[in-house]
Structure formats: structure tokens, C-alpha cells
Design brief:
This protein folds into three domains: 82 residues, Orthogonal Bundle (Rna Polymerase Sigma Factor, Chain: A); 57 residues, Arc Repressor Mutant, subunit A (Orthogonal Bundle), CATH 1.10.10.10; 125 residues, Nuclear Transport Factor 2, Chain: A (Roll). It is 49% helix and 15% strand. Helix 2 packs across helix 3, helix 3 packs across helix 4 and helix 9 packs antiparallel against helix 10. It is elongated.
Length: 303
């Protein structure tokens, strides 16, 4: 039984802010497992702290998590620079019945477009932007976290904001349209429907795929709907259709997942422009899919 006064009790400040810390760490790192490790380390430090002297637990915990993440980014830099092929964030898979959110809702935006925009920022820009624009911490508090002046933190966030605005998609589709397009694209990739694939893609569509050098994936972005269509037809001819597949929300965006019945073999996230698919993010790296559990719908009969 958990002691109600312990650091891990459901009513403790740490548990009240755990989801916030997990969201912050995931956005800073782009990996679920590393984010979980950081939050666990934050908990250990919180448990050892003199909590009676802490007046703002959320800010205190955010400071610990952010500093741990920045240290992790430094240590992971060499591995990232030698990564084979395209690097994509680890996907978060939800049920397909996700809800509409405003286009400027940064607090709930974990789309690949935003995650990749964050990845292109410096670590300090990323932290300042997330802490202020996404999670609402004042620059005075951020200054203490980043060991910079408030004015410097404001400049970091401003530069980051400019890059993020330029990178986020300008077009969205209603949820029902996104689910429909995802289902049609999933079916076309399963059947090798060339005409169907071509009709669903914008002419300048782009495909990003991450195999991590472990499984086969395009090392560079594939540009144009004709090349993308050939890519998927080639995969189908080589590997055959996936055993099971299902439309899902990936990082809050329409997409679908493919499974061999025991593990994921592909997670697809889609972006749209004027009613068609303009970008596809395909995660195939098995190390980045290990945190995902096969949904019950994929555990039973083939699609």
C-alpha cells in the first residue's frame, strides 16, 4: 500500500504533474523510452529533495526534467549524427476516434511536423519554446532552468517560434476526412492499387521513412507521388501485404498501423493539403516500435 504522504502517492505533487513531465520530456527528446527514464530520474530526485522548501512543485519538477533532458541530448548527439537514414520521433499510437483541435493548439500538438521542427532547433531554443509557448512557464523561471537571463530566454523562444510557425502544416482536414483518406491509403498500399495511390497523393507529396539501419527503408526523403507510388508497390511485391492493419491516430494525426500479428512492422502518419495526402511519415525501426502494444483489434482476425 502506498503511503499517502510518499512522493509516489497519487495525490502527491509529483504524481499530479507526471503527465506534464512526460509530455515535456517526449517533446524535448522525441523518444518515449528516454522520456520515461528521465521522468523516473526526476522522481528519484524529487523523493530525495527537501519538499517543504519547494513553493512551486511544477516549476521545480520542470527544471529537473529539462536539465536532465539537455544533458541527455548532449550525450546522444554523436549517436544521432551517425544514425543511418532518416531520423523520426518514436510514434505515439492512439485510438482512431481522436477529436478535432484548433490549429494553434500547441499544448496538445505532438504532430510529426512539430516534433521535427523542434528537432531542428538548438536544445536551448527547444527548451525555451516548450517551457514558455507550450507549457506556459514565465521567462523568469525559464531563466533559472537554463542558466540564462530572461532576455536571452525570450530571444531563444522567439527564434524557435519563427521556425516552428514556418514548419507546421498550413492545411488541416476534418477528422472524418482524415480517417477516410487514411483508410483508403492503407487499402491501396495493401492491394498495390496504383491508380488509388496516385489519386490520394498531391503531386509534390513527400515520404519520410525511418528504418534505423535495422530494416529496409529509404535513406532519403522520396519526393513526388509517382515515386512514392512505385515505392509502395515495390514493397508489396517484395514482402506481400501485412497480416493485419488498422486506421489509428498517430501523434494526434490520421494514420494507420501494420502488424505481423505479434509486433508492429510499420506505423504511418499522414499530413494533408487541400484534401489529399501531402506527407507520409513511415516508422519501421523496430527499436522505436517496442514501446507499442498491439491493439486488440489487431490481435484477432487479419484485415
Amino acid at each position: 500500500m502506498i503511503d499517502p504522504g510518499s512522493a509516489a502517492a497519487p495525490s502527491s505533487p509529483f504524481e499530479q504533474h507526471r503527465d506534464f513531465l512526460q509530455a515535456l520530456a517526449y517533446r524535448l527528446l522525441g523518444t518515449v523510452s528516454d522520456a520515461e527514464d528521465i521522468v523516473q530520474e526526476t522522481y528519484l530526485r524529487w523523493a530525495k529533495s527537501e519538499r517543504t522548501a519547494i513553493t512551486e512543485p511544477r516549476a521545480y519538477l520542470a527544471r529537473i526534467t529539462t536539465r536532465l533532458c539537455l544533458d541527455h541530448i548532449k550525450s546522444a548527439r554523436v549517436r544521432r549524427e551517425t544514425y543511418i537514414g532518416q531520423w523520426l520521433p518514436e510514434p505515439l499510437v492512439q485510438a482512431a476516434d481522436f477529436t478535432e483541435k484548433p490549429a494553434d493548439d500547441l499544448a496538445h500538438d505532438i504532430s510529426y511536423a512539430l516534433m521535427l521542427a523542434l528537432e531542428r532547433l538548438t536544445p536551448l531554443e527547444r527548451a525555451a519554446f516548450l517551457l514558455h509557448d507550450v507549457f506556459g512557464l514565465p521567462f523568469g523561471e525559464i531563466a533559472g532552468t537554463l542558466n540564462r537571463t530572461s532576455a536571452t530566454c525570450r530571444q531563444l523562444a522567439t527564434r524557435a517560434r519563427t521556425h516552428v510557425r514556418a514548419a507546421r502544416p498550413r492545411f488541416t482536414v476534418p477528422v472524418t476526412d482524415g480517417e477516410r483518406l487514411a483508410a483508403q491509403f492503407m487499402h491501396a498500399t495493401q492491394t498495390g492499387d496504383v491508380a488509388g495511390l496516385t489519386s490520394l497523393l498531391t503531386e509534390d507529396a513527400v515520404l519520410h521513412s525511418d528504418g534505423g539501419g535495422i530494416v529496409r527503408a529509404a535513406l532519403r526523403p522520396i519526393l513526388g507521388r509517382n515515386r512514392i507510388t512505385r515505392f509502395f508497390v515495390g514493397i508489396l511485391a517484395k514482402n506481400g501485404p501485412a497480416a493485419r492493419s488498422e486506421v489509428a491516430a498517430i501523434n494526434g494525426q490520421p494514420g494507420f498501423i501494420k502488424s505481423d500479428g505479434t509486433s508492429f512492422i510499420g506505423v504511418f502518419t499522414l499530413e494533408f493539403s487541400e484534401g489529399k495526402i501531402s506527407a507520409i511519415y513511415l516508422m519501421r525501426n523496430p527499436e522505436k516500435l517496442r514501446h507499442l502494444a498491439i491493439p486488440p483489434a489487431l490481435d484477432s482476425s487479419p484485415a
